[in-house]
Design a protein that fits this description.
Helices cover 47% and strands 8% of the residues. The protein is mainly alpha-helical. The strands form 2 sheets. It has a 3-stranded antiparallel sheet. A two-stranded antiparallel ribbon has the order 1-2. The protein is elongated and about 90 Å long. The relative contact order is 0.11.
């Protein structure tokens, strides 16, 4: 009986020591080593690919954000990201798509509403509005828009800021990112980086 108790106690002690060792190794040492390597090899990515402007972090190049007023209307002096179905919109804690089918009445209504806003804001007809201006991404946090959608906004942004349209268009063209490896995906424009460049271009500091 005593031998059995000692054997059981020994097993518990071995298990406890293994738990302590693995907790320290995998819960403390390993994360610190990986974090340290990340800070040395790729500090920007390790810290969330944050973007700063005038010494202040204004967002991440990996996360889209909405530039709207308290009523949800787009601010005309900024380039707009694509719509978002994440939470109340661009909520990094609720990343998701709408999961609505192409014939869902709620989705069709949302698209019609977005068309009306763009037609009013950018002064265009619905037939020339690119799809990414009307539909949310799968994550709801896509930081990019198509060059077509960025070009569509040029006139409205330039007018809102009192800037030369050609200068704003040139800014957009300079921020078009080519396909990955030259053939993967489509050309894109990072909205946050474009808006920072826009703020630097605007001598009146509108925003």
């Amino acid at each position: 009986m005593n031998a059995s108790i000692r054997g059981t106690g020994r097993q518990y002690w071995v298990a406890l020591r293994a738990l302590i060792v693995l907790t320290v190794a995998l819960g403390i040492v390993y994360p610190l080593v990986v974090t340290g390597i990340g800070q040395v090899v790729a500090p920007a990515q390790a810290n969330g690919s944050t973007v700063s402007y005038q010494g202040k972090i204004v967002g991440s190049s990996l996360l889209g954000q909405g530039l709207v007023d308290k009523k949800g209307n787009p601010l005309p002096q900024w380039f707009q990201a694509r719509p978002s179905a994440a939470g109340d919109g661009w909520d990094a804690g609720a990343s998701s798509g709408s999961n609505l089918g192409p014939n869902n009445p709620d989705l069709l209504k949302a698209i019609d509403e977005r068309k009306a806003v763009i037609e009013k804001t950018d002064g265009v007809v619905a037939g020339v509005i690119p799809p990414d201006a009307l539909t949310a991404s799968g994550s709801g946090l896509d930081p990019h828009i198509s060059p077509a959608y960025a070009r569509l906004q040029v006139s409205a942004v330039a007018e809102a800021r009192g800037l030369d349209t050609a200068a704003v268009k040139k800014l957009v063209e300079s921020h078009i990112q080519a396909r990955d490896l030259g053939y993967l995906g489509e050309p894109t424009v990072n909205v946050l980086q474009l808006n920072i460049a826009l703020a630097q271009l605007d001598p009146n500091g509108n925003g």
